[in-house]
Design goal:
By secondary structure, the protein is low in regular secondary structure. A three-stranded antiparallel β-sheet has the order 2-1-3, with no helix packed on it. A hairpin with an 8-residue loop joins β8 and β9.
Length: about 350
Amino acid sequence: MLFGLQRQVFEVARRANGSFENPQWQVIETTFTRSASAVGLRFSSEKAGVPDGPMITDIEVLATPVAPGPLDAEPIPLPTDPDDYVMDRRKEILLGKALFWDMQVGSDGCTARATCHGHTCADIHTKHTLNPGAPGSQFGHQTDQRAALEAKALAGFRGVSAQMRPDDYPFHCFANPLVPRDEPGFADRGTRLIFDALELHVSASVCKAKFKGMIPGSAVDDILVHADEDEIFNIGGVSVRQVTSGNAPTSINAVFFDRTFWDGRASNYFNGVNAFGDLDPDACMLKANASGKLERVRILLRNASRASRAVGSVNSTVEMSWIAREFSDAARNLFSLRPLA
């Protein structure tokens, strides 16, 4: 189906019970942008031997979209019933900001949430920020050896201490990157894939180690086992910082985010325990009833994906924590430390 220079493709099959008297029409709704004062519509089949034909259409002219205004004119989507959980909103904001920037929250005493969000709330580090990609994919695939060498692209994982430079990009390289992949004749216009490395440019985190316990007054947690045997994140057999599996996106205006993490797993609904919101039926908190006895209750705070996101990092063993550290361990240790020391 063509609208001026625009083209959309649909699969249309003849209805089994259709007839000339009752053709069993298939209704397709689509939206296109008018490119001139008058635009012609026509039907053209991709099946050989089928001629162009008429379309039965009902056209509605939609109002011109209005550009969105500034975000400060929009109401902030606060969590539902925040006063049921927070006694002092001003102190809540101060606490949240301190926990975001405090490196002592990390097991190594030098990894904060802001470590990966410190430059306009994103990550601009260029050294020790490579991840080899999914298991089994740590070697890039060259489809054109000569072109790959000309592009200064080396197959395989470039190493944990690699210093990234402009000519390392892109990781996924076409001979002619300016041709849209969905354009007709894409495969015939010199657009072959010349290099593909499944590495990821991401963010550095803590070394891999097993948590033993806290050391009162120390920002560094005690280590039970140091994972020098890490096959990837080591230099000369010595364990070094891991890197995450995704680059830290901006946190600016995150109050408007419906979900967070690249895969969206940090739910808009915060269950008080983890990132999975109402998908985790076992997530419960303790609440004192009228008699003072603690009982398990289930909560779901809407518009709280930032809370879902935050609890996913503190004890993530590839972000901020030694293996097997609990929230109670991290919280108890912070009471013995000066905030933001």
